[in-house]
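Re: the request from the purification team.
They wanted to know what the chain is likely to look like in 3D before they choose a buffer screen. I agreed to run a prediction and write the result into the notebook, where they can find it.
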Amino acid sequence: MSLVVETSLPALIPNSKSPSSDTTIYNVAFNRSESVNSAVSVVPGLESVSSVPGLESVCSESFESVDDSITGYSSYNNECEINVTEQLLSDDVNERYRAMQYATGGIQLSSIGFAQPPCRIHPREAKLNAELRQWTYDIVAPWRLGLENQIDEYNTMCTYLFPDASDERLLVMGKLANVQFVHDDLIDGRLMNDSSDYMGAVQTLLADHNVLKAGVKDILYVLNTGKKPESVSYSPDVAELLMLDYYAEAAEGFLRLSNADWMKRFMQHMVLFYKNQIDSVTKKMRFNSCAEFVEYRTVNSGLMHMVDLVEFSLDTYMPQEVLDNEVIRSMQRNLMLIGCLSNDIFSFEKETLRDGKEQHNLVHVAMTTEGLSLRQAVEKTAGILTDNLNNFYEKMEVVKTWNRPDILRYCVGLEAETLGGWPWQLSTCRYLSELSPFAELLPKHKRARFLA
């Protein structure tokens, strides 16, 4: 049975600030109404959806801007034709490597000044990961695109982030995460096999803006209803790559196991997630300072749906007045910034050097706006992570004074997700590279001599 916490909070949860590092430039104000409620309207194509009460008011304003974001989307794929596995680097990428003037394996992540308490991993991780892996393999293997070789790069993530989830809920979240990772790899063009029968569908999906837009809308429809649309405007092969059947399987679990208020909020944040995914690879943004970049990521991380999953994982749902409380918002903000900015370190070599998407990476912004060396920029990023982690635990102490076990349990779930990201990124092979500047991210056969 789902637990919805009681709502008599004003006398128990003061909204005044507690002593914290909120005044630093790294913890800028997060206005929930700007990031969520400004999007409330009707998603085109979802007007008749009624499976979740109130979802007819979901996110049109945000989604309509996808039309503008998609402009130039096909050119992105052309810019990133790099064989990651074989490290075949173009002249342009080689020039970026030379310009950085770093030594392969020259920086140890253990020495950059960021440390956190140990994370907890799901007690049945082996069983759950094996089930998720087989489920995902059965989807992508018939395509013969090579995507089946990537499954182990992301398959374990949810067991790090949601260690207290039931097996059933962990599998629902893992299925959604895995299909999203598959789409991420499709967009990146990783290990594409030109002889695959699906290569034409891949090219159509990436090059035809109308197909891409229609596909994203259909994914949102499926997540909202748990079923496929009656008809689609693209080919059956494209439909198969969109994995609508498998989104439906995950959506059925969310619809069955959650409540209507949570599902509406989750769908709002999923719309923002897809918009931010498109923006991150299509908009050439430039930032004048690290503070400006961090403020942008605070509002545009696209990770609020991951915060929502804490409630789902625990089957405990917070009333809006709890979620609107300043202390809780601060902890959520810290979680999101730690998640996305730590990934800027782990994905730096791939995004900045191989793929050239450096405008959305804090390490790159620190180097270009402040003239820092790579090590200095990484250490600055680590300092921002530390500030946010310290602020998170300061707020946790405030929560403990409320004498509300239900809210404390939710915050312990936030803590688990906050702490799970860094060790998961260290454990997965997703960020390994023969040319990584970070010793821990070199393949095992090269790593030992740098970590001795």
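For the purification team: The longest helix spans residues 374-400.
Please add any questions underneath this entry.
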